[in-house]
Write a structure and sequence with these properties.
This protein is about 50% helix and about 10% strand. It is built from 15 helices and seven strands. α10 packs across α12. The longest helix is centred in the middle third of the chain and has 37 residues. The radius of gyration is 30 Å and the shape is elongated. The N terminus is likely disordered.
């Protein structure tokens, strides 16, 4: 069957990969890997530990199979013919790599003319010439991609698949059976991955919601401000309001953004796989900060069910942290002395306030009320004067 073919082709194989500097690295690839998957694994192995900004994109190089006693062959992903609007991606097994110690070489990306000319009859001098070419710039890559003939454009109008062509003609029963089978296949791996990541998620919550001895003064000052506002509006009796304010002002606004987008701080390549995993971690973080407990059913998302037993423990940790910060003595205002010598940029601060004031000018004026005409007039004159004197400020 088709699935047996896929399973039999998924065999681990050790390859020696030569980078652009002719250094060789051992890389483990699957014979059912597409060429793009193989290139990504090569990049991850050859450039392991390097910042993402120093790693070449997979679109900037080709993989060439160095065959003993034969001319080298560049591995292509789109070699199969188009059948009924579908094209199967080429995999390593299609190239029948039978050497006991196969060697792949990373070479700079070739042009379309070089692609077609580098055939099994091409001499080694041409292949050697290709290995000495430098990387193309991104601009050149885009230009080369746009320089396509009409025949190339017509070939782009098709769908691709990796190992098994999607079957849209399945009955409803077959579709449900296939979905159930895939869910059962992935469930074991999902639980295993969750167990591997569990200590890191625990460390994340422990680090963010730290002990009271390590709370920065600015966090204490912010939380005290929110509690004073709750007291001012007679909301102290409902701690859920204050808890939500603290979540929205720090935990969800700042920490969620950092966890969801680590590339803001770190020089890494945030792939779609990493992004989807971080989405689950962010969901756990958000549920841990929430005060409401939404019931779970068998139809709930799998990421909710994965951490269902851990969320109550995390919520207690968040609640305890907020209570500990509230019990601390007031933050000394001299914590601002830790700012750079230049201090705060008052012009930037005022401009940001004026942007908000100008946007909500009518609402602010109406809030002054009829009993404060002088204040209303003064506010309007300040906004108008600012717009006339520095229109680019707002």
């Amino acid at each position: 069957s088709t699935f047996q073919t896929v399973i039999s082709s998924g065999i681990n194989a050790e390859y020696g990969v030569r980078d652009l500097n002719k250094n060789e690295h051992p890389v483990t690839l699957l014979t059912c890997d597409s060429i793009k998957q193989a290139k990504r694994k090569v990049i991850e192995s050859v450039h392991r530990g390097k910042p993402a900004s120093q790693i070449p994109p997979i679109e900037s190089f080709d993989l060439m199979y160095i065959r003993k006693g034969n001319t080298p062959v560049i591995l292509r992903e789109n070699q199969a013919p188009i059948v009924e609007g579908w094209r199967k991606l080429s995999i390593l097994a299609d190239y029948k790599i039978e050497d006991p110690q196969p060697v792949l070489a990373m070479i700079p990306l070739s042009t379309d003319s070089e692609h077609s000319s580098l055939s099994p009859t091409t001499d080694r001098r041409k292949a050697s010439f290709l290995t000495t070419k430098r990387y193309r710039s991104k601009g050149n890559l885009i230009t080369a991609g746009m320089n396509t003939s009409e025949s190339d454009k017509s070939e782009e109008r098709h769908q691709i698949y990796h190992l098994v062509k999607p079957n849209n003609d399945l009955s409803e029963t077959d579709t449900l059976l296939s979905t159930k089978m895939m869910s059962e296949v992935f469930l074991t791996r999902l639980l295993s991955t969750k167990g591997t990541l569990q200590p890191y998620v625990d460390d994340l919550l422990q680090t963010v919601f730290m002990s009271r001895e390590r709370v920065p003064p600015c966090v204490k000052y912010l939380f005290d401000f929110l509690e004073r506002q709750a007291q001012r509006h007679n909301l102290l009796h409902n701690q859920a309001y204050i808890h939500t304010w603290k979540n929205n002002s720090l935990s969800l606004r700042f920490w969620m953004n950092v966890v969801k987008n680590p590339h803001f701080l770190l020089d890494i390549d945030q792939t779609p796989t990493i992004d989807s995993s971080l989405n689950i971690v962010c969901g756990v973080f958000m549920d841990s900060c929430s005060t409401s407990d939404k019931g779970l059913t068998k139809d709930s998302p799998i990421n909710k069910l994965l951490y269902a037993k851990d969320i109550p423990r995390y919520r207690k940790q968040v609640q305890k942290h907020y209570e500990q910060v509230s019990s601390l003595p007031p933050a000394p205002l001299d914590f601002l002395t830790g700012l750079p010598a230049t201090g705060l940029n008052s012009t930037v601060a005022v401009s940001e306030l004026l942007v908000i004031a100008n946007k909500y000018q009518k609402q602010l004026q109406s809030s002054f009320g009829p009993d404060s005409p002088s204040l209303n007039l003064k506010f309007t004159s300040v906004i108008d004067a600012t717009m006339l004197s520095a229109p680019n400020l707002v």
